[in-house]
Write a structure and sequence with these properties.
The complex is a heterodimer.
Chain A lengths: L5 H18 L6 E9 L7 H13 L6 E5 L2 E5 L3 H14 L5 E9 L3 H4 L7 E2 L6 E8 L1 H22 L6 E4 L4 E5 L2 H14 L3 E9 L2 E8 L1 H26 L5 E5 L3 E7 L4 H9 L3 E7 L5 H7 L6 E5 L6 E11 L3 E8 L6 E7 L1 H13 L4 E16 L2 E17 L7 E4 L5 H13 L6 E9 L5 H50 L3 E2 L1 H30 L4 H31 L4 H33 L10
Parallel strand pairs in A: 5-22
Antiparallel strand pairs in A: 1-3, 1-4, 2-3, 6-12, 6-21, 7-8, 8-10, 9-10, 11-12, 13-15, 13-18, 14-15, 16-17, 17-20, 18-19
Helix pairs in contact in A: 1-12, 5-7, 12-13, 12-15, 13-14, 13-15, 14-15
Chain B lengths: L15 H21 L3 E2 L1 H4 L1 E8 L5 H10 L6 E5 L1 E9 L3 H8 L10 H7 L5 H16 L5 E9 L6 H24 L2 H25 L2 E2 L1 H31 L5 H33 L5 H29 L3 H4 L7 H5 L2
Parallel strand pairs in B: 1-6
Antiparallel strand pairs in B: 2-4, 2-5, 3-4
Subcellular location (chain A): Cell membrane
Membrane topology (chain A): Multi-pass membrane protein
InterPro entries (chain A): Acrflvin-R, SecD, SecD-TM, SecD/SecF_arch_bac, SecD/SecF_CS, SecD_1st, SecD_SecF_C, SecD_SecF_C_bact
Chain lengths: ~625, ~350
């Protein structure tokens, strides 16, 4: 009665095999490397490999291998010092516009293991360190954006108050409003001051019949905006990195204008760098439907509240209103999906509450008209002037989408009329990349060491080994044979847990290791329940075989209830979303599931194997 | 080997009233400690100063840490940056400086925009430079060839969203556990379990706050694991309560609760011991990174074990658990089918 069908034995053997195979890659250490990936229009091929090899050889930089892996090139180097040198040499040696060169920690897992999808767990920033990016937020663009915004606002205010023959433009000092009379000037200064208390309005120069007013944004307001901008950018970068599937990154504000991003060892640093460095912003603008863009372009006669743009794909001119409806920082998400009704390619866009309100206001009055998306890309350049690094950026503004507004909408809407699903996903990518509040540039890239010292890591790992050993010894001594069976199951549980964590590419941090230890400590609970039940049954006078059967049966209901409630708690923690806690919860949840299998099924099968064919008088429990 | 007598018969329920009273007093005390004394939040939650230093020749990270320790910076995070010549040092603001950063001096003229901007948290440059100077002094005491390359404020590692997400998660856990226990057991068990959860968490955090240790991310993870451990413990006893109610003829709640506690006693202590062995080693051997985790778990296991006996079951009795409420209602129930 304690024997099982063959498939149950087979299941345990398979689980064992799976566990050892997928846990194995963790035995291979990581190696410093430099990774080279191509931008659009460039390819990574044998020619590039030879070129890189040549650069390294002529500069006498030691490397262990240069490998072509799919669409990326990996240069493996012996140590961290060489890594920086190699990266610098490659960066200057190849076309910097065409390729992304990034530092990496490459795996040394043999090919036959990676071919079955077995990879080692990434070690967290606390245990191994990772790649450190320092990003600078362009604060000048915050001022620019604000001044542009107030120029538009003041222009509308002039129109609303019917002050004729007046202009509002951006000047060197701020927004310059030119009026026709001193009375107009005093009157408008009052109106504008009331409408926008955050502006400092002073009288400017008077030349002939041009009476100027200068409006500047108050410094406190700018400071506050700058802080908000950084905060928003930190949030956006966090979303982008989470979308990459990088577990447990660190994203922090540093100083007034910088953001630190630290990623633990990951497969594709160049991709991360590309995603981080996508420094575009975007704006939704109304299309000027009353004027013909072709005529405007030919004559150069552009209406004052419109601007001429070009389409990204064919360079056709488009006239757009200067006033922005919604800008990229109000975008929450964009994804490419086929339209639910027609099945044609579409991009689903989600805005935040504020953006949604603005979009609702706009679409209520503009159904049937066109709306366009302007994509503003920055291409950063670093030049050396008089021995100093000077950062400049050229700005490219293009229209990526121009579509008819089909109905009134607010937070969620979709853009259709795209040529293909590929185009849709590209547009979605543009939209997502453009959701930064202000452009950021990567100004520094380094490999950072573990945040815990080597001695602390050693202590932590030692305590884990001692802790698990103590549990194993104690259980073995206390429950004798059944304790030893439980110990075997416990070690198998450890292997299975590591295998599954590696398979889902969890990041191993010291808290996660603590989670593993805790899971093991608690996994024994199931065996304790079973063993205590078996003891109870035999105390009540059951035969050894009946005691085992009864022990497992009666303990099962308890184990199930206890583990399901524990699992609910673990899932709750996963919802935290915050890196280290989430990693811990994933470890806990997987551990609860594997422990139910090893502590109950595996031990029962082992007990069956040991006692199956024999008649026993006493139980060693 | 058996550590406990097989058939203990201790009348735990007799002390239910003083036990509940003590539990309530301890809960109130814990809330008071948490609010009055507060938790010493670490770098993870608060942010701090980030100082980049460079040595002329390679230095060892443990040597850098030792120098800082000597200079009075106890919880500094030291990481090599690019090579073993450059290090990033993160330090939590000291108590006084944090307050100075939060409150601009009263005599600062509000009209002076630049001063107002400078004094605004978190970008308190003066405080930062002061820390940087002290760090440099501490490092120079051991090696003269070190310079500060950059010193800036760094924001917290976990954002504001942890607070709101955390609340949602806790609610989710409470509701999830309640619904499950309600379905599998009965509403009285759900209420008792959730009340015990709150009791255990409050007491654990309260005791930890008393130690004055820094509350960091591993500590938060530990508090949340205490929730998991404690619910596990309660459910095991509840399971026995249900089983005995169903199989006994008389169904006298007082006696059945006592019997359930007694018959699960050896398991409660055994599991408490094995888990304590594992997390206790983390506390005693694990070093600064794991000792908080280990300590909180030790506290939590102790409190959780006691509350299974002296808090959860008295509440069950007080809520009026009875045999009728626990009898299986459907004929499909296997335990009913097995009965003669």
């Amino acid at each position: 009665m304690n024997e099982f069908p063959r498939w149950k034995y087979a299941l345990v053997v398979l689980a064992l095999l799976f566990g050892f195979l997928y846990a194995l890659p963790n035995m291979y250490p990581k190696q410093p490397a430099v990774q080279i990936s191509a931008n659009r229009g460039f390819t990574v091929d044998g020619a590039l490999k030879e070129k890189v090899q040549g650069i390294l050889e002529t500069q006498k930089i030691a490397f262990t291998a240069v490998e072509l892996e799919g669409d990326r090139l990996l240069v493996r180097v012996p140590d961290l010092e060489t890594q920086t040198k190699a990266s610098d040499a490659v960066k200057t040696g190849i076309d910097s516009a065409g390729y992304v060169v990034a530092l990496n920690l490459a795996s040394t897992v043999p090919g036959w293991l990676t071919s079955i999808g077995a990879h080692g767990m990434a070690w967290g920033l606390d245990l191994q360190g990772g790649v450190h990016f320092l990003m600078e937020v362009d604060q000048k663009s915050v001022v620019d954006k604000q001044e542009q915004h107030y120029t538009d606002e003041l222009r509308s205010l002039l129109r609303e108050n019917k002050i004729g023959n007046s202009r509002a433009e951006r000047g060197a000092q701020g927004v310059v409003v030119t009026l026709r009379s001193a009375e107009d000037r005093t009157k408008f200064a009052g109106i504008a001051g009331k409408a926008f208390p955050e502006l400092i309005i002073t009288e400017g120069a008077t030349t002939g019949d041009a009476f100027a007013l200068v409006a500047k944004v108050r410094p406190e307001k700018l400071k506050e905006l700058a802080l908000n901008t950084i905060r928003q950018n930190v949030g956006t970068l966090r979303n982008r990195i989470n979308a990459l599937g990088v577990a447990e990154p660190i994203i922090q504000q540093q100083g007034d204008t910088r953001i630190v991003v630290e990623l633990p060892g990951l497969q594709d640093t160049a991709a991360a760098k590309k995603v981080l460095g996508a420094t575009a912003t975007l704006e939704y603008r109304a299309v000027d439907m009353t004027n013909d863009p072709a005529t405007a372009e030919r004559t150069g006669n552009i209406p004052p509240d419109s601007r001429l743009y070009r389409m990204r794909e064919d360079g056709r001119p488009v006239l757009l209103k200067k006033k922005v409806i919604v800008s990229g920082d109000e975008l929450v998400d964009a994804s490419a999906q086929p339209d639910q009704r027609t099945g044609t390619p579409a991009v689903h866009v989600t805005l935040n509450a504020n953006g949604g309100k603005k979009m609702l206001d706009f679409t209520m009055n503009n159904v049937g008209k066109n709306m366009a998306v302007v994509y503003i890309e920055r291409i950063p350049e670093v030049k050396i002037v008089d021995g100093k690094e000077v950062r400049t950026a050229t700005v490219k503004e293009e229209v990526v989408s121009n579509a008819v507004i089909q109905g009134v909408f607010s937070k969620q809407f979709q853009t259709t009329g795209l040529g293909s699903m590929k185009e849709a996903s590209e547009t979605a990518l543009f939209l997502r990349a453009g959701s930064l509040a202000a452009p950021v540039d990567i100004v520094e890239e380094r490999v950072i060491g573990p945040s815990l010292g080597q001695d602390n890591i050693a202590k932590g790992l030692l305590s884990v080994v001692i802790g698990v050993t103590l549990v194993v010894l104690f259980v073995g001594l206390y429950y004798k044979l059944f304790g030893l069976i439980a110990d075997v199951a416990l070690l198998l549980n450890l292997v299975l847990l590591v295998a599954i964590l590696s398979l889902v590419q969890a990041t191993l941090t010291l808290p996660a290791i603590a989670g593993i230890v805790l899971t093991l400590g608690m996994a024994i609970d199931a065996n304790v329940l079973i063993c205590e039940r078996i003891r109870e049954e035999s105390r009540n006078g059951s035969t050894p075989m009946a005691s085992i059967k009864g022990g497992y049966e009666k303990a099962w209901a308890t184990i199930l209830d206890a583990n399901v409630t524990h699992l609910i708690a673990a899932f709750g923690l996963m919802a935290f979303g915050s890196g280290p806690i989430r990693g811990f919860a994933i470890t806990l949840a997987i551990g609860i599931i594997t422990s139910m299998f090893t502590s109950v099924t595996v031990t029962h099968v082992l007990v069956g194997l040991i006692f199956g064919g024999r008649r026993v008088k006493t139980l060693s429990v | 080997m058996e550590l406990f007598k097989a058939n203990t018969n201790i009348d735990f329920m007799a002390v239910r009233k003083p036990a509940l009273a003590i539990s309530l007093i301890l809960m109130v005390l814990s809330v008071a400690i948490i609010f009055v004394r507060g938790l010493d939040y670490g770098l993870d939650f608060q942010g701090g100063a980030m100082i980049e230093v460079a040595y002329e020749t390679p230095a060892d990270d443990s040597a850098v840490r030792a120098s800082l320790e000597k200079g009075g910076f106890h919880q500094a995070v030291v990481q090599s940056l690019g090579s073993s010549r450059e290090y990033a040092i993160r330090i939590k603001p000291q108590q006084g400086e944090a307050q100075a950063a939060a409150m601009p001096p009263a005599d600062a003229k509000p009209a002076d925009d630049k001063a107002a901007a400078e004094a605004a948290p978190p970008a308190d440059h003066a405080a930062n430079n002061k820390i940087a100077d002290e760090v440099l002094k501490a490092l120079k005491a051991d090696r003269a060839d070190v310079v500060v390359k950059r010193s800036e404020f760094v924001g917290p590692q976990v954002g504001e969203e942890l607070r709101s997400d955390g609340l949602v998660a806790v609610l989710f856990v409470i509701i999830g556990i309640m619904v499950y226990l309600w379905m599998r057991f009965e509403w009285r068990f759900a209420v008792s379990a959730v009340a015990s959860e709150i009791h255990d968490t409050l007491l654990t955090v309260g005791v930890f706050a008393l130690t004055g240790r820094e509350f960091d991310l591993p500590a938060l993870a530990a508090v949340l694991s205490v929730v998991g451990y404690s619910i596990n413990d309660k459910v095991v006893v509840f399971d026995r309560v249900r089983e005995i109610f169903r199989s006994s003829r008389k169904g006298e709640p007082y006696e059945i609760l006592n019997r359930s506690i007694n018959s699960t006693m050896s398991r409660t202590i055994m599991t408490g011991l094995t888990t304590s062995l594992a997390v206790g080693t983390l506390f005693f051997v694990g070093g600064p990174a794991l000792e908080n985790f280990g300590l909180i778990m030790l506290i939590g296991i102790f409190i959780g074990t006691l509350s299974s006996i002296f808090f959860a079951n008295p509440i069950l009795l007080w809520l009026g658990v009875s045999k009728q409420d626990l009898m299986p209602q459907t004929k499909e129930d296997p335990e009913l089918a097995r009965m003669p």
